[in-house]
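[stage:ingest] chain + small molecule (phosphoenolpyruvate)
[stage:ingest] validated
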Amino acid sequence: MSPAWTTPHRPTPVDAVVPLPGSKSLTARALVLAALADGPSRLVRPLRARDTELMAAGLRALGVGVEDDGTSPDADWLVTPGELRGPAEVDAGLAGTVLRFLPPVAALATGPVRLDGDPRLHERPNAGLVAALRDLGVEVDDGGRGRAPFTVHGTGRVRGGTVTVDASESSQIISGLLLAAARFDEGLDLTPAGGVPSMPHVEMTVVALREHGVDVTATGRGWRVAPGPVAARDRVVEPDLSNAAPFLAAALVTGGRVTVPDWPQVTTQPGAQLDRLLRQMGADVQRTPEGLQVTGTGTIAPLVADLGEVGELTPVLAALCALAGGTSRLTGIGHLRGHETDRLQALDEVLSAVGARVEQLPDGLVVSPGPRRPALVDSYADHRMVHAAAVLGLAVDGVRVSGPEAVTKTLPDFRERWAGMLGATAGVVS
Ligand SMILES: O=C(O)C1=C[C@@H](OP(=O)(O)O)[C@@H](O)[C@H](O)C1
Ligand SMILES: C=C(OP(=O)(O)O)C(=O)O
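[stage:predict] done
[stage:export] tokens:
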């Protein structure tokens, strides 16, 4: 583990333009669909971070070509579908996308595919996916745990058909099944058994499938994917709007201004909701020719919001709540207990350590500011907890976070970008 990171304290306004690398979620979908397609595809500006490198490595292990385009400054990937085959070992690390998107692909391979990952991956909920694969005719050996590690015994084809899926703990279970479904003999008619968190991420999957020529219909109960080819497609990956959260939050905390360039006009990324949420917290948010510009006043309004659609924004928003002028209430996020760490517990510990008052609800958090104090907090191996600590540290002198290397999951140079933002005078952080 690298030494604890002393997060920079910043009593004066920031003023910076912060470009961001590609979206984790869009890169993951692009890789899987390109792997299942009828010809080679190019991914321009994909996210190159632990989660997406693990996705690429997992696909390679199954026989897909995922190669660097050495000539491209943006580290493009060229994806060449191949015959899917085991035996293979897939390391999912701590990536929910690999955990839930690759098993349905593995089911299309010939031979056993074993999936394992970090110790915490063994605790991430996945029983709904295992049960659904079995209902679709796939043999999965999970030792009765419904979690990793498990082995998918692919036979080269999946019957598919009608299935009811428990995706109450992760939308990724639905996305994973839909992504591979056009390659199932009967396609897929999927109905969620109950509530589904992070619905915009399912919509992102549906749009990505249609962009690859797949016939997907919303049935009212769920989604139907017709069997058929997946068209190859080159694509440019949008910047990761969820990873914009800590940088934009810095504008609110310091009463400064931060612009994220190339903010898409239209997007399926749930991070786009930062526009609305940061306004609710008192920021001025403008779409300028350069990108999304957020300006803070130096005071932060408390937030009362259901974050069920945008759970991954919670750590940074909760950090802002700890610095706000009153009590905030964040709900609809019980499923965050199954994320990289139990994020409700972790946020309770971290925000309390710097002086906030925190109450855990079954599905959320109530956060009130308190007398601020320095603290050494844990990252819990969670990239977004490091982002949250960095936001707190702007306002609270002496916030240190152990295990800061967790940021490699989706933004390996987070600390360099953070320092660049703070050093910049209306400058671009490159
Ligand atoms: O499909 C995706 O790319 C994601 C879906 C969401 O997962 P959950 O539904 O498990 O929250 C989100 O939190 C995660 O960061 C990315
Ligand atoms: C929940 C997250 O990740 P994962 O894709 O591993 O579920 C996240 O990035 O906030």
